[in-house]
Each structure stands twice: as C-alpha cells, then as structure tokens.
Amino acid sequence: MVEVPSEPRAGIEGGGREVVRHLRRSGKGEVVVSIPRVWIRSNGLEQGGSLRVHDAGPGRLLLEDVRASGKGWEAALHVGGSEPLEHLFRCLVAAYLTGTTDLVLTFPSGLSKEATRTVREFARRSGRMEVVSEGSSAISLRDISGDGPSDPVAVVVRMARGVLELQSRARECLTQAPTTEDDSYWEGQDDEIDRLEWRLHRTLAAQFLREPAETILPNGASSALHLLATSRALERIGDHAVRIGRASASLPRTGSHPPRLPSVVEFYGQVLELLERAIPLISRPDAQASNEIADTAGSLHASHMALLQNLLSRKAPSQIPPLTAAWIAQVLDSIDRSAAYVADIAELCLDRAALEWVHVPGGRGTDVPRPSALQRSPPFATSGRAQKGGHLGSQGIP
Known about the structure:
By secondary structure, the chain is an alpha+beta fold. 51% of the residues lie in helices and 12% in strands. The strands form four sheets. The chain has a four-stranded mixed beta sheet with strand order 6-7-9-8, covered by helices on one side. Strands 1-5-4 form a three-stranded antiparallel beta sheet. Strands 2-3 form a two-stranded antiparallel ribbon.
C-alpha cells in the first residue's frame, strides 16, 4: 500500500519508503501523480493495471494493488470425534466472521454424515462459502462469491429494511386468517437476516485486518462498534418477528385461532412506525431524532403491561383458552422487546451523532470542535438509557 502525502516530506527520490511527487493537471478537473518506478516493479504492476484509492482522512490518500486485497485468508480447524455439532457450527461461523476465505476441516476420527450436513448447512446459510472438496477425514470450503468489500453502512440499512419487512409480515398474521406459510418460510427469512449480520461482521473484520480503520468508516473503529451493535439489535428484532409469525401459524394446529385484537395490532403498528423512523438514522445519525425515538419507545413499554392486563381481564380466566392466553402474552412480549431494541438502535445512532459534535484532535495537539458543532449542539432530552427503573436496555435479553 502506498501513501501519497499532501505535503512534501523527507525521502529519497526513486527509492526508500517515502518520496515526493508533484501533482499534474489532467482532464475533467482531476490531477495525476506519478508512482515511484521501484514500487511499480517490485509489485509487478504495469500500464493498464488497477489500484484501489482510499480516502484516509484529511491530508491522506492510500493506494492499494487490487490484487493484494483479493488474496485469500486460510484457516485450518481440527475437529475431535466427540465435538458437539452445535460447537462445530459455531466454530465455522467464528472462522467465517474473521474474514477466512479458505477453510480446511480435518476429522481425525473420520468425517461423519452428521458433520457433513452441519458443514453444508453452514455453507448454505452463509450464502458465500461452498464445499470444494470432501474426503473420508477432511472437508474444504472456499468463498466463491467474488464480491468486493461491502459498504458497512449500506449493509446495515439493507438489514434494517429486511427486518422491517419481516416484522410487517408478522403483523399481518394478526389481522388475517392463517396462511399456508409454515416454519420453513420464517426460517428462510431468519437466515437472510443472519446472513446480512454475518456479512457486516465479516466485512469489518476482514478489512480491519488489511488496512487502517479510518479508510473504511468515518471515525474508524468507533463507528464500526456502533454498527455491529446496531446489527445485533436488528437481528434480535428479526428473531421476534419470526417468533410472532411462528406462534400465529402454529396456534390453529392446536384447535385455537388467533383472536381479533385491534389494540394489539395498533400497538404493533406503533412499534413498526418507530423502527421505520430509526432506519434513516443509520446512515445519517441525528441526535434529536434519536432522543425522540428513545422517548417514544419508553412510553410504549410503559403501556405494554397495561395492555396485557386489560386483554386478559376482559373475561374470566376460565373463558380464555390457556393456549390463547399464552399466545397473547408471547406476542405482546415480542412486540415490547422489539420496541426496546429499537430504543437501543436510536441510542447507538445518538452515540454516532455525538462523534460529529464532540472534540476531535486539532492540528497542534489541542482539541478543537468540528464546525458542525456550532450547527448541531447536543440535545438534552432524556433518552431511554437514563431511565433508572426502565426495561429499555436490552443487554442480556434475547
């Protein structure tokens, strides 16, 4: 990787690690800069080759040979004969999330049919890895997608849109007769959400191992951590949509049917509206809007128990079939927890917005505020995380 400095720096022309090159005029308002011959030769480049350009922040521009970023990352995993299949699957996911492109699994005691199914199930769910060889005691996977690095923010936004669509479908299950959708439908939708979360984690991990964090996201690692936490909250919201959909589909099999509950449908709609309002904040964090969403989520949580008690007390307990009462409680619980995760997303967007108005290092070792700080001062509304007795923090809540 070559760094093109914005100011002249000491170096040996035509050799060494640092050189100075002058900018020359090109067409369409652009300028060109020559690249040291010794670097071109040592990297085997020639005219017509390609370099990837990274904006590394004020005064820094990074150039990378596109072939270097395409090199695979190999990993080997030895699996014991008594290893539970759940552990094997988790290890596969862990290797995948670190950016591994070639993975070799060896089974000293032999590759069983169950282990093979687990490996192939992982490959299917990843959407990128494929089994390329299989023997009596070893199996190999490779990333055959050929995709370039993904925009982390775009991946999270896409994930959020998918989660909103899935939640909307789950809400429809409360307003219409049971459909033919079975567990495979909800499982497939859940897999797609997981796949996007894995893709984000994999993209960030793989890119951070190869290049500075600042070349990937503004504010580097801080933004990456917020996006990872946002994706986890979205994954949990998707899980609760699947939980509602499956419960609504399975209730008729027991001889009961989901009751018509307009108040629950309305409550659900308010939560989905809140999620829809939060999605634009992922790409354009806004402190004021984040605080408003967190406040609304707190109000929705406060009404959750009152709504549950009102529904279950309309009739004598003996008049409500136990399975129906359990279904009502489960649906409301998932809607409430979804609202809590939306509050988490809003607070994470608030944290990212704070990166725009907190102090950043200045040019002479002092802290100076960004110009935008004069336009967007931090709001002082109380967010959900400040409510001592609240339930909004979803840490530890599945």
